[in-house]
UniProtKB/TrEMBL annotation:
It comes from Hymenolepis diminuta. This is Uncharacterized protein. It comes from the Eukaryota.
Length: 142
């Protein structure tokens, strides 16, 4: 830009200002339509792998239904373990079988560690199940 010269729009800096450069709008639209008709869509990605659906939900006693919604932080994907037979409409691919531990039956004959007397004071030493010696302060002893 030079002082005293009329301002030019940005298009005039790059393109010639003569009208012969611009194509005829009717011809341009016809060429664009024919070109668009010749375009073909790309084939989609092959999905030869089937969706994995476990067969266990049909026979298991408990299932975890997936909760497809926006979750809070640290919220699990699946909701609790529900007993089979509860009426609820859920898609089979949103269900995960629940493999629950068998209930532990405690034996009536548990192993107890005997309290052995302390060598210095003669007081019994308290031992935990893991075998650690626990020294309690005297103020907690009755």
């Amino acid at each position: 830009m030079v002082f005293g010269v009329p301002l030019k729009p940005p298009g005039q800096f790059l393109f010639p200002s003569d009208k012969s450069f611009w194509p005829n709008p009717v011809n341009y639209v016809e060429r664009l339509c024919s070109h668009m008709q010749n375009l073909q869509a790309l084939p989609t990605r092959p999905t030869s792998n089937p969706i994995f659906i476990p067969t266990d939900p049909k026979t298991c006693s408990h299932v975890f239904p997936r909760h497809d919604a926006v979750r809070n932080p640290l919220q699990p994907i699946y909701d609790g373990s529900f007993k089979n037979g509860r009426e609820s409409v859920v898609s089979i691919d949103c269900v995960k079988p629940a493999y629950l531990n068998k209930p532990v039956i405690e034996n009536s004959a548990s192993v107890f560690y005997p309290k052995s007397p302390d060598k210095e004071t003669g007081k019994p030493i308290v031992v935990t199940r893991s075998g650690r010696h626990v020294p309690f302060p005297d103020r907690y002893k009755f």
